[in-house]
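yo, Probable alpha-L-glutamate ligase is done. seq:
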Amino acid sequence: MTLELGWEEWISLPALGLPAMKAKVDTGAKTSSLHAFTVEPFGPASKPKIRFGIHPIPERPDIEVYCSADVIDKRDVTSSNGETERRWTISTEIEIGGQKWPILLTLTDREGMTFHMLLGRQALESYPGEAPRVSPTESHLQPELNYDAYQKMLAQAPKKRALRVAVLTKEPNIYSTRRLIEAGEARGHVVEPIDTSRCYMLINAEKPEVHYDGRALPSYDAVIPRIGASITAYGTSVVRQFETTGAYCVNRSDAILMSRDKLHAHQILAREGINMPTTAFASSPKDTDSIVDLMGTPPIILKLLESTQGKGVVLAETKKAAQSVISAFRNLKADFLVQEFVKEAGGEDVRCLVVGNKVVAAMKRTAAAGDFRSNLHQGGTAKVERISKEEREVAVRAAKALGLGFAGVDLLRSSSGAKVLEVNSSPGLEGIEKSSKKDVADLVFQHIERRAASTVKRRRRVSAAA
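structure:
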């Protein structure tokens, strides 16, 4: 059956996540072109990809759709006014009136033009069967579509596409970073480790940028922060800058800061009614005896506010020992917490790995002989653990309370139920992947794919003179 087309038609490009566009059908033009901005190639030279934004509705520049595609070529295209431009060329499927076929598209800036899509002669000739007949005096001979589809897309899961993802880390060669890169690349994404400490920022209202090694970094669809405790302040400012550029950050800067500050984290957990070991904090040396007494009969735990991997955590067997440790901490001008010792936990805790709103893996960690800390970095051992529904719910609630999309939640099993010991915003993957036999890194990327927006509605800027 011959496809009848007018000089303008509604088309869709489903593989690019563009359900409705108005296209000018121009048999005088050899190539087809699609409006694109922020055009950025990425990926390996052997298999390059292209990432670009498009305003599918010419009259609505606030509606942006981001697309990814494999690069076919980069070729010279001469426009009707005789100007030659070198354009990226991609292949994608077009749909008109229920008929689908692959076409080649060149990417160019058509901002300000009536049509953000031009359908040229080559695309018509590639139609399977007899080439479509085009009437230059008629329009919309095929069923009309509707721009309302983009409003619906804003509330839907993003279109599956190749993503450009940054892993912020000072340790690109450790197990967790390598696994994240492997998992992302296996799912067709491009994953780039970036040394957080080497980033610097250009902060302005028009085009905020993150710079690295003398150049502005490209736009990233998503960022996985792996911010070490030694650079919490600067690292979170870099994450905040990536948020400003529009990248989806698996853990936001404010969530990382809350989780890293143990006092703040415990206050948030308490506010949300989440069970945890009884905790006390005081600033004045005059209150040392009072906060120790709040814990009841020793032993008690003393913990630096920004301790990690079990470092800066001390078990005081007696009140006198607790007073001595507190005095030492105060001499170092270090902030610390005094915490209930959950004896029935028996030197064990349960690490729950939360991705999104789900516990995806769990392991039981057991302290080394003679130690009370179950951290693997302190010689603890791990094995896969089956957790209860209550423990699962507590872990998810704790991560959600702190706003973390990817977190390690440590639980103590007590006589009064599961208690949240700590929430880690940069959990290691090695122990939990090896003990649980689960591909946690892959699950992180599944979460990113559901959250890295492909359709964005931006607030239109108002000039100072307006």
